[in-house]
Design a protein that fits this description.
Layout: H1 36-39, H2 43-58, H3 74-81, E1 85-87, E2 102-104, E3 110-112, H4 117-123, H5 127-131, H6 138-157, H7 167-192, E4 195-196, E5 214-215, H8 216-234, H9 240-250, H10 265-281, H11 307-318, E6 329-330, H12 346-350, E7 359-361, H13 363-366, H14 374-379, E8 380-381, E9 397-398, E10 421-422, H15 427-440, H16 444-457, H17 472-486, H18 493-499, E11 512-518, E12 524-531, H19 542-545
Antiparallel strand pairs: 1-7, 2-3, 2-12, 4-5, 6-10, 8-9, 11-12
Protein name: RagB/SusD family nutrient uptake outer membrane protein
Organism: Xanthocytophaga flava
InterPro entries: SusD_RagB_dom, TPR-like_helical_dom_sf
């Protein structure tokens, strides 16, 4: 890790983050001269550091632009590249990163992008562009290595703290917290970048650069290692009250509502299993191109799912998040937030009239709702049309807080504390992994029953699809539509399009078919072909690769594109 950029993101600001839980938890001495060694000497100090290291360093610092958090910037790019959203703002290439190479309309007319996405990414992956806030691939790396480093710092402090109550239980709770978030950080890096670094020591201004880059699948292996270590560490919890006391302070109080809360050790382990299943699913190919369940991609940075992989997903998800389990969520109060109500999430930036919102709901997203789906009528209207000359014209706006239909999911709100970010796994995601694994393993109706469950859970109000004799292709179509509409704004959409093969060049077996596209003149096409041709895994940001060049044989620039 280089000592000039990412590694020097100190966690000292996190020491003062105790206010996020509406408590002044730390005796800091002179607040103008804070240091970890001087301030983190008590249990309450460690809580402030461990909480702030996650929520401030991991999800807030460095993300000020059109939005203000990890959930608006890196997750915004994820939705843009999944073609769920469009944008025309110039900031950080949001208007270009999700634009496909070309579109072929139903009548055969071909419209070509003069600035393809791969060229844009590589043109602006420079230190100068980062300094000008114009390097889109910089931020996810920044946030996740800052999160990882913060956890490394906390781990060095735990054994030196005198705990009240059951010291072993409290120490294990802190360790599980760090292992969980390290697993999360490595999962994010390994799922997005072609290569990365495994950083296990405390990085800082005086640290030695580490150029030992490893491939993304090695990073995912490290993520799995930490998730499993978190699970075994939770087995060492012996005093429930002390566990709940610590975890109840690590998770901000304003996040302990709705699906958020203090999970029991068993709930937390189910969250871990969901993430283990996710790590397999989103980092392998399961092509479903133009309705073909047997499609293949001939040029990719990863491999196809095997029967063994599907069985592993099934095993983990079977023991994953259940309906009613507490999961890791985020909310936005008026003050001391780690994302703001109006700009801290991709959902917030999409909420409102499409002619004035930062992001706009894409026609490729709304086409996935089935007739009569209450989620559509509760959340979207067609009062205005936003016109963009290439691919982002849309007839839809997302309604702030929804239309008030009881029991129906709401996609976005700019009201303080209303919108719930699913930071990691959710019941819906886990159920849809069960659905896809079962369908791919030949248990079609069992898989479709989970699709029905998710639609019922979110208040869709549409007829069930299990037990209807659907073919494999028909079942996968239902699964794909439901993942698209159920899991938007959860940091997963691009990974889905990638593994289904849609983001790859048509020449290599990819592409997306049967799309709704609206022209600025008002013509509505419903069977357009789109060739995205995006990088499947991003290059390492230049701020890292140039200051900290590779000393291994692993490339920092994706060689497959």
């Amino acid at each position: 890790m280089n000592k000039n950029k990412f590694a020097s993101l100190v966690v000292l600001i996190a020491v003062f983050f105790g206010t996020i839980a509406c408590k002044n938890q730390l005796d800091v001495g002179n607040p103008n001269e804070p240091t970890v060694d001087q301030n983190v000497i008590t249990e309450s100090g460690l809580i402030s550091l461990a909480q702030g290291g996650v929520y401030i360093n991991g999800f807030y610092n460095g993300d000020g632009w059109l939005g203000d958090s990890y959930f608006s910037l890196p997750w915004g790019y994820n939705e843009l590249m999944a073609d769920n959203l469009g944008a025309d703002a110039s900031n950080n290439q949001v208007s270009t990163i999700g634009v496909p190479d070309y579109i072929v309309y139903d009548d055969g007319t071909k419209v070509t992008n003069s600035s393809p996405s791969i060229g844009i990414i590589r043109t602006y992956n420079t230190r100068a562009s980062t300094g000008a806030s114009n390097n889109p691939i910089y931020y996810q790396w920044l946030n996740m290595y800052a999160l990882n480093n913060a956890c490394n710092v906390v781990l060095t402090k735990i054994d030196g703290i005198t705990f009240t109550g059951d010291a072993a239980t409290k120490a294990n709770t802190f360790k599980a917290w760090c292992y969980w978030w390290k697993g999360y950080a490595y999962a994010s890096i390994g799922s997005m970048y072609y290569s990365g670094l495994i950083i296990e020591d405390v990085s800082g201004a005086n640290s030695i650069p580490n150029g030992n880059y490893v491939l993304h699948d090695v990073i995912i292996d490290k993520s799995n290692e930490y998730f499993k270590l978190a699970a075994t560490t939770l087995d060492g919890i012996t005093t429930t009250s002390d566990y709940q006391e610590v975890l109840g302070q690590l998770i901000p109080e304003f996040c302990q509502v709705g699906n958020g809360g203090v999970p029991s050790p068993e709930m937390w382990k189910r969250n871990i299993n969901t993430m283990l299943a996710r790590n397999i699913l989103i980092n392998k190919l399961a092509p479903f191109v133009d309705g073909n369940p047997n499609a293949t991609i001939t040029k990719s940075s990863t491999s196809a799912m095997s029967t063994s992989d599907w069985n592993d997903v099934l095993t983990y998800a079977t023991n994953g998040i259940k309906e009613g389990d507490y999961v890791f969520t985020g909310r936005s109060p008026a003050n001391n937030y780690f994302f703001s109500p109006s700009g801290g999430t991709a959902a917030a930036l999409t909420t409102g009239i499409n002619t004035s919102a930062t992001f706009r709901i894409s026609e490729r997203f709304t086409q996935n709702f089935k007739e009569g789906d209450k989620r559509f009528s509760n959340n979207f209207d067609q009062t205005t049309t936003y016109k963009n000359s290439y691919s982002f014209t849309t007839r839809h706006s997302m309604i702030d807080g929804g239309n008030g239909q009881a029991g129906v999911y709401v996609y976005g709100s700019q009201t303080e504390g209303e919108y719930e970010v699913f930071i990691a796994g959710s019941y819906e995601e886990n159920a849809l992994m069960l659905a896809e694994a079962n369908i791919r393993l030949g248990n079609t109706d069992q898989g479709l029953s989970y699709v029905d469950d998710v639609r019922n859970y979110m208040g869709a109000g549409i007829a069930p699809v299990s037990g209807k004799g659907l073919s494999l292709a028909g079942a996968l179509t239902e699964l794909v539509k439901e993942r698209r509409v159920a899991l938007i704004f959860r940091g997963l959409s691009f990974y889905d399009n990638r593994r289904w093969g849609w983001t790859y060049d048509i020449a290599n077996g990819g592409g997306s078919y049967g799309n709704t596209v609206v022209t600025t003149g008002g013509t509505v096409y419903t069977n357009a072909t789109i060739n995205y041709n995006f990088l499947d895994y991003w290059d390492v940001p230049a701020d890292e690769s140039e200051l900290n060049p590779s000393t291994s044989e692993v490339a920092t620039k994706n060689p497959n594109f």
